[in-house]
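Record format v2
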Amino acid sequence: MLWVDKYRPKTLDKMIVHEDVAQNLKKLVSEQDCPHLLFYGPSGSGKKTLIMALLRQMFGSSAEKVKVENKTWKIDAGSRTIDIELTTLSSTNHVEMNPSDAGFQDRYIVQEIIKEMAKNRPIDTKGKKGFKVLVLNEVDKLSREAQHSLRRTMEKYSASCRLILCCNSSSRVTEAIRSRCLNVRVNAPTEDEIMKALEFIGKKEGLQLPSGFAARIAEKSNRNLRRAILSFETCRVQQYPFTTNQAIPPMDWEEYVSEIVSDIMKEQSPKRLFQVRGKIYELLTNCIPPEIILKRLLYELLRKLDAELKHEVCHWAAYYEHRMRLGQKAIFHLEAFIAKFMSIYKSFLIATFG
Amino acid sequence: MSDIRKWFMKSHEKGNGKATPGDSGKPSAAKSQPKKPTQTQSEGSARRKTSKYFADKQKPKDEKETDEVPAKRKPQTDIPEAQKPRLSKKLHKVDDDDDDDFMPSNAKSTTDVSPTKKLKSCSGRGIPKKSVDVEESDEDDAKDTKSPLKPSGRGRGGRAASAPAGGRGRGGGGRGGFMNFGERKDPPHKGEKEVPEGAPDCLTGLTFVISGTLDSLEREEAEDLIKRHGGRVTGSVSKKTSYLLCDEDIEGRKSAKAKELGTPFLTEDGLFDMIRASVSTKASGQEKNKKSAEKVASSAAKGSPQKVDAKKESKSSTVASNVSAQILNSTSKPPLPKHQSTGATLVWTEKYRPKVPNDIIGNQSLVTQLHNWLSHWNEQFLDFGKKGKGKKQNDPNAKKAVLLSGSPGIGKTTTAKVVCKMLGFEAVEVNASDSRGKADSKISKGISGRNVNSIKELVSNESLGVNKDWIKHPKSVLIMDEVDGMSAGDRGGVADLIASIKISKIPIICICNDRYSQKLKSLVNYCLPLNFRKPTKQQMAKRLMQIAKAEGLQVNETALEELAERVHGDMRMALNQLQYMSLSMFVIKYDDIKQRLLSSAKDEDISPFTAVDKLFGFNGGRLRMDERIDLSMSDPDLVPLLIQENYLNYRPSGANKDDNGLKRMSLIARAAESIADGDIVNVQIRRYRQWQLSQTSCLSSSIIPAALLHGQRETLEPGERNFNRFGGWLGKNSTLGKNLRLLDNLHDHILASRESNSGRETLRVEYLSLLRDRLTNPLKTMPKDEAVAQVVDFMNTYSISQEDFETITELSKFKGHPTPLEGVPPATKAALTRAYNESSKSRMVRAADLVTLPGPKKAPKKRIAAMLEPSDEGLGEENGEALVESEEEDSSEIEDKEDAADGEKLQKDLEGLKSKAIQVQLDLKENEKSSGKKKAPAGRGRGGSGSSAASKRGGGQSSGSAGKRKR
């Protein structure tokens, strides 16, 4: 089993990072009722872990007996029927799903499926927990319409159902939803915390950690705990015992992006742009989300750029990222960004060096 | 420019000068009508002069106007023409020919100004100019490709410069002649020479072959020039070739052949000289010319129609006066050609429908074949019964029906009818379009009195009645027209038809357009297929010429050939076009046809590639906005993709002197942004159904990028062909869809393992490299057995199936990087597979591959304990609680299932139970329906305490994929 999963805290008490949040949640739940919750924070900060632990706190170990369902819902949308396929993880007390998987049809998921689930009060009425919990992941990726339909559901069925929303950026969740939830911000763990976690794992695994090695991993992980643990294990797989200056391998796709960036920096021409397009396609077909590609591209570009261009390039990256979300064919926007960059950079080079 | 204009004026004036004497002389010679003088002058507006009036006068004019067909033209037109050139040219640079027409008429007699003129847009007068226009526009286009300086070039080139509109539409529009500019060199002195205007028929009878690059003309222009002057252009050298037109001996096949045959070579200048010579010698030569030309036209013109007119007029002065009054008043309706006004007003296609088989153009052998078949039909099939089945016919006549196929308008129906008529059969035509749906299907039922049911009766009754009443009843033939349209309305139409054929006692002729249509597949076996080919343009032209003569139209053969070519062998369309043109003009020339059909050519399907070629082409900048919209709307989905795929390949002509590529780069950036705009607009259109935005979308996704970057295409990769690639997005998107689906499966499995609950995205972005390492590194580094054991163990922990293994390696493979499995010895791989399968027997399957959708896409995974394929009735649902079924039951269930839906495989490998209970619930699409079956569920009874794992596979995938794709 991977260390990430092996050492994932199962209960609120065992949390290594965010103990304070965990304790607060515990108190909240112990009062027998809890409001809707919205967890937000960067990836790898522990939102999911917190949610799972919270569920366990609420329902006991039955929350861990989960079945995975993947079924097709037939939804009657006016004139036609829409088939939507959705994977859910459910226990007797909760259902977890990722409504944004349905793409632009997510509205129907919210309007029909979630409402349907929310309506049904769990039969188990032994006593206290008279409600079930819906865990919705990636709420920030829900379309605006879906979010609008969600808010009514939140109010109407609040008697029988609690929603736990989980997202990376609360700014993409509408105000209306945010105000209906208790917002829980889950910070990215600090590097110290990450190092602590890594050392904890190292101890449990009985590994020799050279001094500074954990610090380097933590630094590379960009304050993403999951990432840190994963690359820790990758290092372990690749070479053990560790050496102080052991290379920390980047993710496969990150490596590829940095190749692209050096291509772009070397030459700015239609031909190069064409080649870069091929590489971007390669990334996209390997299921790397376009936003992440763009972000990484920018990150790598900024490392190599002169200071005076950084501002402008950031501006354009933000501009095209926004447009990419409005659009559908990500490659067009990525390409537009790269073309824009090439154009800017080229004129900069010519202006500077003639 | 001014030089050119001067030149033109001069030539016209010269023409005039010459003409005047001619005029004076001629009228006397001409035995024109008494009315002529008055009419000619006053009738400036009347477009439709009967040709006889003018026949005489025309000669002088013809001389002047090199373009004019010698045939009778209206005299008045000539006079104004002398003046026209000045006025119209100066004033109406941009204007259409219509305007040109106006001008002269105005100049001549103010009273003439009649709105009706417009109707006539193409009438005689306009013609000369038109031709020039066309030429110019072509020229302009050509020039553009070469050098911006051109405009001052030859002929009227100047106009193009002052009036950019000159190039609009025509050059870019129809011919695609310049699309392949990359292939042939441009003429070295393009546009630098004056192209002479000669007598219209000065090249009549001559056949040219063009070879290599000419000095100043594009090949298309040269062809145009020759055709306009009555010559023919063929593709290869033969004995009939009069000249090989070439400016440089490129030692090609053509020149070799020409040398062999002794064909004279002719340079471009030589050609010009020939044409010019015709002008100068015209005064004298005109008459000759005319005669030769008139052989064709005037005989007809003077002959039938006019004579009729003449007679009429003389006979009944009232009619004549009416007519003349009409003409004088220039009533808004153009007077019909007398011929028509007196005669039937039939559509020409009906009027000139062939009456005897020999009239049919082309396909004579098929006609004969049909004839033979029909004439032998009775002997063959009706006598059968009597004589016994003894002789099997092996000749093609053995089929009881024929199937005529071929594109529309080439005379299939006509052939059938004519042949029937000739053989004395009574043809009963069932036009599938009127009987379809109700009738056709009833043919076999034959219930009651509808049209086609009577046919049904006809078909079968005849069989009874044959012997007795044979002589009394006329023989009948059933013509089933448009059989390929039949099954659209009613199902089984073709089957019924076949049944009818089997029992029929009369011949059946089926007619269709597309013989290879899926619908007709079965029918073809019962029929004798006769495939009609398109008639050649010469054949068509010949027939068209006859008709034109009969109608009193003056057309030359080149023009008709052009017409024939434009309609792609569709005789009916050709006739319709011809008739339509005859309404507005009397003399039809090559250029008229060319221009007329240019506009109709637009309605043809443009392939997205052609559209993109045009948008990006050199002339892309000259297209009018509506043309661009038309082009990009020709396929609003594909064109933007093609544009996006190829825009990098164009070297924009807008960026001149762009040494370092800076301008180009910034243009590309703008284009890319615009394409991205288009994507955003497209989302609005599709997602929110804002279809009113589709033009906006076109504009930003196709037109703006094309406008920014149009120019010469270049290749970016070595070895690439210099043609537009097909958009890569579609392919990539479907790969992405596939990979996402695979990733989904992996994700489901991992979720089902309960070891992790990360999201799909996280799985890809963060987990995948480690998973890959964990799966492949041991194989590379450790001893085989140990490695295999470790990997299999890891796979089991995360419920990773072998397919998932492949998914992982697939997804982390990047072009140009070593594949993750590189360096793993095949033996190890094999061992891994073995070990994996081995352990799968005792494996507790946690993977709930719940995926439910039915589909052939994926092979069922072995890994999974139970594989169910949903049968149509629906499948049971398996619940953890519900499963306490013994293995025997299972297997019997399984068998049942297999019977029910063949091809279903059930496989059970589950034996062990694990303490960790995983409940897998299968949800089938048809859950509700199958409630009755619930207990059956093929389940894998896992006897334990509700721990069961089953997975059902197969069902879900394809719809899943479909769903995804929708997204």
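Chain A touches chain B through 86 residues (CB under 8 Å).
Chain A has three domains: 3-185, 191-238, 252-348.
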